[in-house]
Amino acid sequence: MATEKKVSLKLLIDKKANKVLFAEAGKDFVDFLFTLLSLPVGTVINLLKKTAMVGCIGNLYESLENLNEAYLQPNQSKDSLLKPKVSLTQMANVPLLLPDIGNLKPEPGIKLYGCSNHSNHRCVTDQKGARCTSCQYSMNYELPFVGTNNKFTSASDTTNSSDGGFVKGLVTYMITDDLSVSPMSMISGVALLNKFSVNGFAALEERMVEFGIDEED
């Protein structure tokens, strides 16, 4: 059994109100939160369905999973929704706290396919084997794709991004219970204490916790 990935958080707790005011977190946890924004819903449900309750969205996922292919349009594939392609090239070093994340392989780039009937390239797809809407041939012929975001990367840019992920390290971030994320500073911390009407520090407690996928509290 693989060791569960965990990250550490420092919580500031108002003992009198029994409330977590905010958490102090490093790059690893903030990268994890921002990574969730890049994952399609189908991918998240696919990752969580074996280890967690996912409610009605999970039922919707399972309905499509069990639906006979005969009910689908000829140019559609269930995998396009159940297992959407996710580009993980920017997430290589992000400590994703989701189960079986290793099953997601980095996409080398966009692949487009045309009709295997080489005289017909009026339509393209990113799903290999889809049916051509014009002649019903399988679309297995790979077409070259030239991206528009190829830009010059300087040596300094490469050095600064060597840690991977989305945000820079060597910075502590403040995360509130509504998932607002901002760089931690004394001013922002005091402002938040004033917002919650905290008077004095006697009622405040710092507590270190570890965060992972299997949380019961």
From TrEMBL:
Q: Which Pfam families match?
A: DUF674
Under which name does UniProt file this protein? DUF674 domain-containing protein
The cross-references to InterPro entries, in alphabetical order and at most eight, read:
DUF674
Q: Which PANTHER family match?
A: OS01G0153900 PROTEIN, OS09G0544700 PROTEIN
